[in-house]
Each structure stands twice: as C-alpha cells, then as structure tokens.
Amino acid sequence: MIPCLYASMEKKFDNNGIGKMADAHSCVVTEKRNGSFELEMVYPADGIHADQLEEGNIILAKPSDTGRSQPFRIYKIATPIDGKLTVKARHISYQLNFITVSPFATTSCTGALAGLGNHAASECPFEVWTDISSSASFRLSEPSSFGTASAVSTARCWTPLAESTSGTDTPSSSIITGAQTTACISSTAKTSSTSRWRGTLRA
C-alpha cells in the first residue's frame, strides 16, 4: 500500500485525504510489544505533496503486508539531506497520553471504561464500550493521563488499568478502535473468561 497523507483533524480516513505519497523512497513501521508503534518515511523534498508534510498531519500506512492500515501522526521532520526528508510519526492513539483523567472509583468494567471518558479534563476523541458484565472494583487514585490510566501502548496489551479488590484475577483484553485505528488495553478484572472492551474514534 502506498502511504496516504491526511490533514491533522482527519478522523474517518474514507478517502485519499491530501493524497498518496507515491514518491516515498521507504516507509517503515516499527512495533514493539508493550512499547512503541511508530512510522519512519524517507521522502524526496520535491516529491508530490512534500510541501504538506507538516507536524500534526497524519500518514495512513500498513504496518505489515497483512495488517490493517493504521494512522500515524507526524511529530518530526528532519532537515533535508541530499534532497530527502526523514519523517517520523507515532500511532494516533498516543493522543490518549495528553488527556488528563481525574480520580474516580467504580464497581464494574462498564463503569471503568465510562469513567475514563466521563472524568477526562478535556475532550476525548475516543468512544469506548465493553461486553464484560461481571462486577469488579476499580479505582484511579490520582489524576493521570488517559494513556497512563489505561497503561496505553498502541496496538499492544497494556499494564493493569486499575485495582481489582476481590475474587480471582483474570486478565482481560480491551480494544479501542477508530476508523483504521486499533489499540489494546490489558486490565485485571474479576471474570471467568476473557472479554473485550471496544471503542470508536468520534467522527
């Protein structure tokens, strides 16, 4: 797939946006388990749409031959060397790290997901939901970023969301999805089976 460039506010990714980055010399996505999920692209300074490669804009690219296309937000563009730009971008769900969530407590998995959004100090562009129906005690004891509260690391299993205070701990997976966006949360919940939380990036 040829990487595609979008404006910073794009959320649907249902068209070609600014346009295809057809002149890319290379476009490599690096994923580390429980770690980074980043893109690096080498692009000619005089290539098509090169003048619209700006920090904050989004590049849609496949992380692998079989994976779904993922959006990466540009955070650095290196000074041209030999007429080539080096563009670095992070998966769009890193945005969760800049949303502060106030302390709260709840007694259900549904409440834990809803609480993250309801107690966010600024608008959260992600909507989340869950199919976990069992009871559990969750507590966020101090203000944290949405990303820290859910131990966010894009497209990976993350560390516990909150404390579970009774019963037998069973890890359960969670998913945040938005258009082409996918991220995974890991939590400790009192449940007899693995279930999923899901969400959608608001249009």
Structure commentary:
The chain has helices at residues 109-118, 146-149; strands at 4-6, 19-20, 26-31, 37-44, 58-61, 70-77, 84-91, 100-101, 104-108, 126-130, 135-140, 144-145, 170-178, 181-189, 197-201. By secondary structure, the protein is mostly beta strands. The strands form 5 sheets. A 7-stranded antiparallel beta sheet has the order 2-1-5-6-7-4-3, with no helix packed on it. Strands 8-12 form a two-stranded antiparallel ribbon. Strand 13 (170-178) and strand 14 form a beta hairpin.
List the helices and strands and how they pair.
Elements (H helix, E strand, L loop, with lengths): L3 E3 L12 E2 L5 E6 L5 E8 L13 E4 L8 E8 L6 E8 L8 E2 L2 E5 H10 L7 E5 L4 E6 L3 E2 H4 L20 E9 L2 E9 L7 E5 L2
Antiparallel strand pairs: 1-2, 1-5, 3-4, 4-7, 5-6, 6-7, 8-12, 9-11, 10-15, 13-14
